[in-house]
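INFO  loader      accepted 1 record
INFO  loader      residues=173
INFO  predictor   begin
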Amino acid sequence: MMPNQSGQDADATNSPETPARKRPDPEDVRAVYQAALSIYAYEGAQIWTRFSAMLVAHSILIVVIGQLLMDATNPFRFFVKALAGAGFLVSLLWLMITVRGFRYHDIFLEAAREQEAHLSTPPFVQATQFSAASWFDYIGWFRTRTITYGVIVLFAALYLLLLYLLFTSSGGH
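INFO  predictor   done
INFO  writer      dumping tokens
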């Protein structure tokens, strides 16, 4: 017999005196599973609520900047630069919050999957998986998460472009 790390024979650790790894109580597993799914769904809803609110806020900010730039005398040039700078910073915060939200979303999905392994009838997570032949599997860039990040980066790039044009066209004033 081969000794294990503690120096005992491998069969000695499986003796009747050694408690076997206890199988989790099915009711406890189901409760944890349902909690993980509830939090997973909640976090998914939160991601889209935050995204929608930020999308509307940035759209309004872009319209305000556009209206201020329409004035031929441009007395609000400094204010427009400040708005564009703030928009860029808020875009960065939006990206960080969205990345964090998707990470939490993934954590709770994984927690549900771990509990699902102990259930006799996995009701949800396995049913939500795409088939191996799904076209989403072949077009990796066309995922909701990637497009979401892309929209946020587009807003940030728009603000940077606006700042560049404002500073280069006015000599920095």
